[in-house]
Every structure is written in structure tokens, then in C-alpha cells.
Amino acid sequence: MTRRYMAVRDRRLEGGVPARAHLAIYNTDATTPIRNVLNSITSYAGGGKIHTLFILCHGYAGENSRLRVSMDAGGMGLELGKEGLLHSNVDQWRQVRNKMENIVVYACAAADTQLGNELTKADGRYLMGALALQTNADVYAADSIQWYETYKGLRNGAFKFADWEGQLLKFSASTGMSVPVASVPDELTAVLHGTAK
Fold first, then answer.
1. Which residue from 108, 80, 102 is spatially nearest to 196, judged by alpha carbons?
2. Where are the domains of the chain?
3. What is the pLDDT of residue 13?
4. CA–CA separation, 99 vs 136, rounded Å?
């Protein structure tokens, strides 16, 4: 059976995703309601499952409440669509429960949790774990700023992600707990090049 993939890309992240077989692409911006994103996932999954949903967007910079400072720490959510993906609205993702096996988040410091930020709005590990529990999908995200390039020749370029920066974590669909991992099931680059497993 052929694996199906989907890329949800926020246009505020420079670059693009070229069309490929078995890859659905949904673009968002600051005016796109999150319900539209979730409806597109449901529609593409149909009665089956998407193997991997790739989320491509900026991560919100965080703060450290314990130290009472703002910092480029991450963990405060994802700049995805109009509302973003935040602690306050992650429960909306229950709408796409069982629609995908994996979610790979290409965003800066999505899984970052600074000491003292546990169980606050700047707890990225909690947010990624909640996303895994709401969707019943394993979620992969890193705790550091991520770097990427874009291939030239396409109107918006095409994403080319380098090695994962910081610690890459896998959040369990059944428990929401995280463990360090070396890689994700399939990288977007491999899907774009036709070398995914």
C-alpha cells in the first residue's frame, strides 16, 4: 500500500513545497482559520490514514517566567494559520484524531521547555505531548532553533531541511511522553525526492 503524506505550510515561513505524487499540500497564512486546516486534513485522509503530516511554520519565541525574562527559547506554540497552535487551542486537533500516524513539526524550538517553564504557556514539551494525545499520532519536534535552505528554480523555492538541531524528540500517541530519537519516520526532503521508505 502506498504511503500518503500531507504538508501544511504557513506562508509566513519563506519557501514552498513542490507538487509530488502522494503528497497533499495545504498553505495557510495569518487569515486562515485553523478549522480550515483541520477540515483539509480530514478530507485528504478520507476513510484511511495519512502516514505523515508535515507542519512547516515558525515557532513562537518564548519566555522564562521563573527568571522573568523574554528570550528566544521557543515552546510557546506554532505560528500556524490565524489562531496558531497553542496550549489554549490544541484540543481542537481532536477533530483529526486517528487521521494520521505521524506528525513531523519543522518549526523552531517547538519542543523547548526551559527550566521553570514546566506546565506554563511556554512549555513546548507539554504542547507537543498534548498534540500527540489529541490526534493519536506520534509527534516529532526539536527543542532548538532549526535551519533550512530553499532550492532555487521554484516560484517560492523548495524547503531543504538540514540535520535536526538540538534534541529531536518523539512524543507518544498513547502517553504524550517524549523520548529522544535520531530521526523521524520520513523526512520531507526524502518525500520530495522520492526516496521515502
1. 102
2. 5-193
3. 87
4. 8
Instruction: Tell the residue number behind the cell numbers 524528540, with chain if given.
Output: 169
3-state secondary structure of 50: strand
So what's the pLDDT on residue 177?
97
In this structure, what DSSP letter does residue 112 have?
-
Report the range out of 12-26, 41-55, 116-130, 150-164 with the highest average pLDDT. Answer: 41-55
C-alpha gyration radius of the chain: 16
**DSSP conformation class of 85:** B
Q: Which three cell numbers stand for residue 110?
A: 517547538
131 vs 91: CA distance, rounded Å: 8
The whole-number pLDDT of residue 9 equals 94
Quickly list DSSP for 10-37.
ETTSS-----BTTEEEEEE-TT--HHHH
Q: In 46-183, which ranges are continuous DSSP H helix?
A: 124-135
Report the C-alpha gap between 10 and 45 in whole angstroms.
20
Containing 68, the helix (H) or strand (E) segment is none
